[in-house]
Amino acid sequence: MQIFRRLKPIAAISFDLDDTLYDNRPVIMAAELAQLMYLARHYPVTKAWGRDEWRHHKLRVLAHHPVLAHDPTALRLLTLHSGLLYFGLSEADATTAAGAVMDEFIRARSHFRVPESSLQLLAKLGQKYPLIGLTNGNVDPERIGLGDRLVFVLAAGSGVRMKPVDDLFRMGCNRLGIASEQLLHVGDSHSADVVGALKAGCQAVLLNPAHGGVEPGPLASPLPHLQIQRLDALLALL
């Protein structure tokens, strides 16, 4: 553990989910593969597009609807809908199909369980602190085993902007009934988690490398309060 700023009294701890409590890279790859397989099975005309074509189309959609940068679910849904229109489906059929494909993606997106080491860590920390989740993603926390470990999880979307904007931090502190400086946020992204937490007036812990990573990345400014290479270093807070 590296200490860069003195910690103030902590009333609660928030966690980023993806790549902090688990390695999200294989999860996303599996979910995108499940989406492609579902499309190919039910809408064979879409076989002309692979992962790269859908990603490029997503970027085109985002360029026309930049507000969706803060809503990954709505962005994916519109990407699917407009892509299916391109392949000749009617408006009604594209709407129905996009919803079905999105359901398949979300199912696959949450078809795993948080590692036992993370669950045990949360159980220990939860004996002293209220624990919450603040995520830019769209995983289902109940299905991956976090339902009884986190008091609640807040996610970006539906008007709630992604970290590093302060929406999630502000909402979390308000719901907990604590001042922002009493929240310690733990995450793997300097740009989203550290910058976001500090801008919101919270305290920040950077997990570096991210969950599943090997080599830590270089430090950037502003510095977090703490940098850890393993989540179990947080047990020092007990």
TrEMBL record:
<protein>
    <submittedName>
        <fullName>HAD-superfamily hydrolase, subfamily IA, variant 1 family protein</fullName>
    </submittedName>
</protein>
<dbReference type="InterPro" id="IPR006439">
    <property type="entry name" value="HAD-SF_hydro_IA"/>
</dbReference>
<keyword id="KW-0378">Hydrolase</keyword>
<dbReference type="GO" id="GO:0016787">
    <property type="term" value="F:hydrolase activity"/>
</dbReference>
<keyword id="KW-0460">Magnesium</keyword>
<dbReference type="InterPro" id="IPR051400">
    <property type="entry name" value="HAD-like_hydrolase"/>
</dbReference>
<dbReference type="Pfam" id="PF00702">
    <property type="entry name" value="Hydrolase"/>
</dbReference>
<dbReference type="InterPro" id="IPR036412">
    <property type="entry name" value="HAD-like_sf"/>
</dbReference>
<dbReference type="GO" id="GO:0009231">
    <property type="term" value="P:riboflavin biosynthetic process"/>
</dbReference>
<dbReference type="InterPro" id="IPR023214">
    <property type="entry name" value="HAD_sf"/>
</dbReference>
